[in-house]
Amino acid sequence: MAAPEIAYKADFISFTPSGSSSIVDMVLAQDASGTPFILTEGVDSGVSTVDGGKIWLFADAVNANILLGRVGVDATMSATGDVAFALWLDEAGNHQSAGLYMVQYAALYHADATNPDDRISLLSNAIFVSVDTIEQKIFSDFSDIHPGNTDFAIIAPDGALESDDVQLLLVGFEGGEPATVNVSTQGIGTGAQSIGVGAAFR
């Protein structure tokens, strides 16, 4: 085998965020709970090299989307073993899909020497893809707040104040000094019904 051999699968995996959530990152993980691979302790890949070297899966030191298959020593994992192959999850810009590269550096063992298309697989549930999401809340309706100048204001998303909702606490300041929060059903400002030069919310 001439090394390295490279394979690529476009649209290897895709996710659709639910509701107001957005996907901000995806990484390769070692279980369904999203546990990341680490540098010092490998996960059994279930495959080996042609000379019997068992291969273990380790995190890459630089990129969480790269997974290294390292050859162990005498069937014992080695965090510094030779890299037999590498997997790279190639994320799209919106983090909702990714392709997958595989770069193979060493010949892998196939049980059926008579079949040129004999396929081998990693152990079932050896690799997962974990996504990190954030939920967006839109604070655009001030109808649940009593109008007037107050020291602070608590706003609920879309005016629906529920006990389990994310809420926004606003405190005004101007020129480095505290300022009142001026609220009406039409808008919100500091001191007045606007945000002037040197004024802001915290």
Summarize the structure in words:
The strands form five sheets. Strands 1-7-6-5-4-3 form a six-stranded antiparallel sheet, with no helix packed on it. Strands 9-14-15 form a three-stranded antiparallel sheet, with no helix packed on it. The chain has strands at residues 5-14, 21-29, 43-48, 54-59, 66-71, 83-91, 97-104, 128-135, 148-150, 153-155, 168-170, 172-174, 177-179, 181-183, 188-190, 199-201. The chain has no helices and 16 strands. It is mainly β and 202 residues long. The chain is 0% helix and 43% strand. β4 and β5 form a beta hairpin. The chain is elongated.
SSE layout and pairing:
Blueprint (H helix, E strand, L loop, with lengths): L4 E10 L6 E9 L13 E6 L5 E6 L6 E6 L11 E9 L5 E8 L23 E8 L12 E3 L2 E3 L12 E3 L1 E3 L2 E3 L1 E3 L4 E3 L8 E3 L1
Antiparallel strand pairs: 1-7, 2-8, 3-4, 4-5, 5-6, 6-7, 9-14, 10-11, 12-13, 12-16, 14-15
